[in-house]
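One such given next:
>
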Amino acid sequence: MDNKNTQTAHEPHHEMAVLAGGCFWGIEDILRSVPGIVDTEVGYTGGWLKNPTYHDTHDSKSGHAEAVRITFDPAVISYEDLLEKWFFKLHDPTTLNRQGNDVGTQYRSAIFPQSAAQQQTAEQVIARVGASGRWRRPITTTIEPASTWYDAEDYHQDYLRKHPGGYTCHYLRD
């Protein structure tokens, strides 16, 4: 008897989220410790250049955003909570193409929904966050179509674990 099907049936169901909110190092560093986050990786998405490098993404040369691809367990953390309780608190969603000292379209605040349900949730959360009065300026976060994902170079993966105390402009805001 083949037990592969039985084992697969008991594995947890995971979902993917792709978020951009400035330098990917800081986002990854905060999100990896959130209960329900199974895995994170940094990369590039949302642009026109195939197989971009870190150098290609700077000065808006490729159209790509520095992004984090997050694997999460929706039984532990919902996509809605990931956005509202984490994403919109770990960066400033009102600064167009900027986070801290990082400036350029590669640092834009963007959500790349992976399904129609994620699209709808993202729209609702952005509307709620915008109407909350929490931010003095309008939300500039865009919802962009899911597009090809390109892994960032190995030295960017887990960067702040490899370089404790390295540069980040991300922190949790109340």
Remarks:
- The domain at 13-162 is CATH 3.30.1060.10 (Peptide Methionine Sulfoxide Reductase; Chain A).
